[in-house]
Specification:
This protein is 39% helix and 20% strand. With 288 residues, it is α/β, with parallel strands linked by helices. The strands form three sheets. It has a four-stranded mixed sheet, with helices on one face. Helix 1 runs antiparallel to helix 3 and helix 1 packs across helix 5.
Length: 288
């Protein structure tokens, strides 16, 4: 696939997202004219249009942007729900287009895929980067582009937001994963140094990375299912929540609390000295 063909593939997929966003915007504003309620933390509910525009900007994002609202609850008509579902499908097709440009989905661990997306030191596939640059979309955050707008169940009775505070997570990689990460390093000297270190390891050894997890927004929801039972469920939140009904559930919003450090006594999983500093990879304790 040539660069121009790649650009055409990605552009067509992104145009579908852009057109879907326009439909969502139209329907959300129509819901405002119909007086459907909404709740956006930090914005006066009496200023409905301002809140709706803030919600639309959040749902339309293709780049990581901390200035946008983090969440909210938007009561939605059937037409709005259909437009949101169409947007989510367009996001899936864009993801498929990106994967086709990269030559299909590689059988890599979920941890490895996450690190490649999140780590600025790792380069994107050359063909993908060239296509995004030609589209003027090199600054796109792919995880943001892929993220669905969440539609809650019908008859949602309550939403209360909460925070999973900052903590550390240990992620394990195979040596093969580590070679894949090293191959994507933009700094050639650092890449060669990492590969030399990795070649000295047994192929079955595991490497460990310590990841600082930022505070994560979650929501506890309660809804009545088809059997008239009240169901309680905890969900991860990545933006505005679509509520497919005409009444606003009971909402409880909590501001992000100050960071707290929680120390847990766990067996030591890694050595103190980092093995490959440029990738933040450690050997398991007792392996050196």
């Amino acid at each position: 696939m040539s660069v121009m063909e790649t650009v055409d593939t990605l552009s067509s997929a992104y145009v579908e997202i852009a057109e879907s966003i326009k439909q969502v915007e139209t329907q959300v504003l129509n819901d405002g004219d119909a007086k459907l309620p909404l709740f956006i933390p930090g914005i006066d509910s009496n200023d409905g249009r301002l809140a709706r525009i803030a919600a639309i900007k959040s749902m339309s994002r293709v780049r990581a942007d901390s200035s946008l609202i983090k969440t909210g609850a938007l009561c939605a008509s059937n037409k709005t729900v259909a437009a949101v579902e169409q947007l989510n499908q367009a996001k899936d097709r864009f993801k498929e287009a990106v994967q086709s440009v990269k030559g299909g989905v590689k059988k890599t661990s979920k941890a490895l895929q996450h690190m490649i997306l999140a780590n600025a030191k790792l380069t994107r596939d050359d063909k993908l980067a060239a296509a995004l640059k030609a589209m003027g979309a090199l600054s796109f955050d792919l995880r943001t582009c892929y993220a669905h707008v969440r539609v809650l169940p019908e008859n949602t009775q309550a939403i209360s937001w909460t925070w999973a505070m900052k903590h550390k997570r240990m992620v394990t990689y195979t040596v093969a994963d580590a070679f894949e990460l090293a191959s994507r390093m933009a700094d050639e000297q650092a890449r060669l140094a990492a590969e030399i270190q990795l070649k000295g390891l047994p192929s079955d050894e595991k490497l460990v990375q310590k990841i600082d997890m930022p505070p994560q927004l979650k929501a506890n929801i309660q809804f009545i299912d088809d059997s008239k039972q009240l169901i309680k469920k905890s969900i991860t939140v990545s933006g505005v929540l679509i509520v497919p009904q005409a009444f606003l559930p009971d909402t409880i919003w909590r501001e992000q609390p100050k960071e707290a450090t929680i120390r847990m006594n766990r067996p030591k999983a890694r050595e103190d000295e980092v093995f490959i500093p440029t990738l933040g990879l450690y050997r398991h304790a007792g392996k050196s």
